[in-house]
Automatic annotation (TrEMBL):
One of its GO terms (biological process) is proteolysis. The keyword Hydrolase applies. InterPro entries: Metallopeptidase_M50B, Rip2-like. The keyword Transmembrane helix applies. Belongs to the peptidase M50B family. The chain crosses the membrane at residues 12-32, 94-115, 127-150, 162-182, 203-221. Keywords: Cell membrane, Hydrolase, Membrane, Metal-binding, Metalloprotease, Protease, Transmembrane, Transmembrane helix, Zinc. This is Site-2 protease family protein. It is found in: Cell membrane.
């Protein structure tokens, strides 16, 4: 008996996503105009909501690519609505990534879409589905840093510049982490279709632990941590963003720690 695969309602943008986008717009305006009494709170709301928007777009890119590659069941699962609560689990998809931003200033890959890979034919399509999410983070980083690499910072308020720089750092870290060829991450999903069946069977049990292994290495082995953030800093420098902007962006984001006098002096506060 055939089952419903998709209809127009499955692709209607979720009010939840629209609400988060509205928070991004309003808090971004507050940062730009220095409207808030506590600019750090406005930066926190702007970066956090924009980060959640990017998480939704990341997963939407996976889902949309899978939909056009042959898995029409994607629509019925709610993945084309941009609703953050449709992507696996609220804790794993939204809460943990936001907590990692607060604690470590790092973009944790969050959420997932369950794709019926049996409906999709062709190794290139499978690879593209996995690559679509991280490429969204790359695009987001390019957009956030456009004023920097276009040398168009005149007229951009300093605190807003800090917020954009920190948001770009999150996008770059998320893209790099996701593109690592580690089981369970998108980078492995890109190369998996090209591996032999024997290798895939051997690696499959490791997938649930891939992300955990990456973060253990990052947080407990200084050499790995230094190499990772050196790479992140190198990418950001190519995009015109320096350590001052990202560091001050993190300081403003953590508004509960009090205003950093050094960063505030550049902002004229």
């Amino acid at each position: 008996m055939p089952t419903r695969t998709s209809h127009r309602g499955d692709r209607r943008i979720s009010p939840v996503f629209l609400g988060i986008a509205a928070v991004t717009a309003v808090s971004g305006w507050a940062v730009w105009t220095d409207f808030a009494d506590v600019p750090g709170l406005a930066v926190f709301l702007f970066v956090t909501s924009a980060w959640i928007v990017s998480l939704c777009l990341h997963e939407y890119a996976h889902a949309r690519t899978a939909f056009h590659s042959g898995d029409l069941s994607i629509g019925a699962k709610g993945y084309l609505t941009l609703n953050p609560f449709a992507y696996t689990h609220a804790l794993l998809s939204i809460v943990l990534p936001v907590l990692f931003v607060i604690m470590g200033g790092i973009g944790l890959p969050g959420g997932a879409v369950f794709i019926d890979r049996g409906r999709i034919q062709g190794r290139w399509k499978h690879s593209l589905i996995s690559a679509a999410g991280p490429l969204t983070n790359v695009l987001f980083a390019v957009v956030c840093t456009a004023p920097f690499w276009l040398d168009a910072l005149d007229g951009v308020p300093v605190v807003f510049r800090y917020a954009l720089a920190f948001l770009a750092l999150l996008q770059v870290t998320a893209a790099i982490l996701n593109l690592l060829p580690v089981p369970g991450l998108d980078g492995y999903g890109v190369i998996e279709p090209w591996l032999s069946h024997r290798i895939r069977r051997q690696v499959e049990p490791l997938a649930p632990f891939g992300l955990i292994l990456v973060f253990v290495l990052l947080f407990f082995i200084p050499e790995v941590n230094n190499a990772f953030f050196d790479g992140v800093d190198a990418v950001l420098r190519q995009l015109g963003v320096g350590d001052l902007e990202t560091g001050c962006g993190l300081d403003y984001y953590r508004f509960w720690q009090g205003e950093n006098a050094f960063c505030a002096s550049f902002a004229g506060r």
